[in-house]
Amino acid sequence: MTSTPSVTHSEIAQRAHQIWQQAGQPDGNDSAHWLQAERELQAQNEKSAGAEVDRGKSAVSHAARHLPEKAPHSTNYAHPGVTTDSLHHQRNR
């Protein structure tokens, strides 16, 4: 799980000022503008962080689709009579 980068005080202040100007510069709404700016910027950061995670997942799944199931030099040949169990018993003699 990735953590969302925090929003800085300066970024919130700039966005709150923009909201205040867009609202016609009214008196007494500074807290509401600040909270709105904070919510908007946090949502924006979460959205961009989610997109980065999605891009990472797609890159992994893309690579996984192109990996061979087994090494090209592998075979299905098994020597008759030689098993890991028989090798274990030979070592302990």
List the helices and strands and how they pair.
Blueprint: H1 9-22, H2 30-65, H3 84-91
What does it look like?
- This protein is an all-alpha fold and 93 residues long.
- The chain has a domain at 30-60.
- It contains three helices and no strands.
- Helix 1 crosses helix 2.
- The model has no long low-confidence stretch (mean pLDDT 75).
H/E series: HHH
- Global outline: rod-shaped
Question: Portion of residues in helices?
Answer: 55-70%
Chain-averaged pLDDT: 75
β-strand percent reads under 5%
- Provide the low-confidence segments as ranges: none
* End-to-end gap: 51 Å
Record field, number of beta strands: 0
Briefly say what this structure is.
The chain is mainly alpha-helical and 93 residues long.
What are its keywords?
3 helices, 93 residues, 62% helix, rod-shaped, mainly alpha
